[in-house]
Amino acid sequence: MIQKPSNAFVGASWVALLAGMVAYNIGLWNATMQLNEKGYYFTILLYGLFAAVSLQKTVRDQLEGIPVTNIYYGLCWFATLSAVLLLSVGLWNAGLTLSEKGFYAMSFMLSLFAAIAVQKNTRDSRLVGNEPTTASEPPFNNLS
Length: 144
Hints:
4 helices; mainly alpha; flat
């Protein structure tokens, strides 16, 4: 049985997502690294967020009996793990202090976790009926 997420959990999820993303990007903005390095880390954040949300959706789809192809399921896992690996390799080889490396790693992981929680809350709210579907949209297709 799916329960509607509490307003406190929805709010905390959004705050965590925004805090992680904003902190990560403020860190990039203030960093003394070259612009191409900043672009690399920013792209990894976007890639990781998309991959984590997509993975959460495919796992949830499978649990609910919604067909998901094995290739897409595998690609979601690959994308999520590769985003974490690419960040790890980038930080390992970066000329940053350990505290800076830890800051980027923690804000990245907070953002990924929060993105999954926000997506889960959105889906649960729609399934419970918090957000009405349109007449042309089937109730269990294309859930965010």
